[in-house]
Amino acid sequence: MERDELAGWLRLTLTPGVGPQTAQRLLAAYGLPQHIFTQTHSALRAHATPAQAAALCTVPETLDTLLQTTLAWLAPGSAGEPCHDILTLGDPRYPAALLHIPDPPLLLYLLGPAHLVQGPVPAHCLAMVGSRNPTPQGRETARQFASHLRTAGWTIVSGLALGIDAAAHEGALEAAADPGTCATLAVVGTGLDRVYPRRHLELAHRIARQGLVLSEYALGTPPLAGNFPRRNRIISGLAQGTLVVEAAPASGSLITARLAGEQGREVFAIPGSIHSVQSRGCHALIRQGAKLVETAQDILEELAPPATAPRQPPPPDAAPPQASLAGAHAALLAALGYDPVGLDTLQARTGLDTPTLQVQLLELEMEGLVMRLPGGLFQRMARA
């Protein structure tokens, strides 16, 4: 982009009261943004309200500073560093999936490896969202589903938030897949010169090496509360479907699921315990028509597969250790169920003495089949 064109796009995004839909009308009428700002107030009134037209005739005070910051950010960095780029609504590389939502972002800031930033945004994407305070089982389920779906050729989209988002990104990054492809997309609610939450700084760096970090917000934009629900339309819009892993009744994840439905995307939800508040949002979605899924394969059977067939793992020579251990302790696993349970309850259910029970629980815990929770509780960990 030339300097004047970039300045025009930035000015359009900075103009107060002018959102994506109004901007689209103006772009359809006048072409490039810099042509919009040569129009008279009366001409602009044909496509905008009087207040919007007045705002369009006023140069934002922060424009020059933002332009200089953005140009510096776009300058090539050192070898091996992530690449920076901006896609405009008129760029041929702009994700086709977002062009079909009601309010596509005017600009998409990209951060990642050069071959991903400069290529097309992946078309076969699955969004995964959920609670910021998941149960241990929910976190592990998200990681497993993401890993399985990534191995099958899907790019996992999420929002870099605490909890389920982070687990989804991590599962995608850990999956065995072609390193030249995009493992995961993180759609954030800040400028790309910031990371929120700060504890995800290293995760953001990992995504920038194996995937893409995206934002519609200008550089320097802080983590404002209203930005996060708004960016959810991009998470759902980029994906062919959205999977909700765990969600409380008033969860932001339900906003993403609603947007996915309005955008004509598939909505999937994983059921959970009737005693867990983190399952109630998923149960509500299922009652409203979301597809209930128990395994990642349930999702793969609903969505058209990626054009490139995934590499199949070699067949195992023997039963894996976890399978053997699960068979040896089948009675204990059955007694555990999938809700948190205490040692006394397990003794009553199994009839095992305390030393034997503790040894078996420790073996299952070491294999990742059982997790020890605060308060002396144990929970069985299901597999995707």
Using the coordinates shown, work out and report the CATH topology of the largest domain: Rossmann fold
Specify Rg, calculated over alpha carbons. Answer: 24 Å
Shape estimate: elongated
The number of domains: 3
Number of helices: 19
Helix- and strand-based class?
alpha/beta
Question: Major sheet, described briefly?
Answer: 9 strands, mixed
Q: How far apart are the first and last residues' alpha carbons, in Å?
A: 45 Å
In CATH, the architecture of the largest domain is: 3-Layer(aba) Sandwich
Instruction: Count every beta strand, where a strand is a DSSP E run of 2 or more residues.
Output: 12
User: Which strand order do you get reading across the main beta sheet?
Assistant: 1-2-6-5-4-3-7-8-9
The percentage of residues in β strands lies in 5-15%
Quickly list its features:
384 residues, alpha/beta, Rossmann fold, 3 domains, 12 strands
How is this fold's topology laid out?
Blueprint: H1 3-14, H2 20-30, H3 33-36, H4 41-44, H5 50-56, H6 63-74, E1 83-88, H7 96-99, E2 107-112, H8 114-117, E3 125-129, H9 136-151, E4 155-158, H10 164-174, E5 184-187, H11 201-210, E6 212-215, H12 227-238, E7 241-244, H13 252-262, E8 266-269, H14 280-287, E9 291-292, H15 296-300, H16 321-328, H17 330-336, E10 341-342, H18 343-350, H19 354-366, E11 370-373, E12 377-380
Parallel strand pairs: 3-4, 3-7, 4-5, 5-6, 7-8, 8-9
Antiparallel strand pairs: 1-2, 2-6, 10-12, 11-12
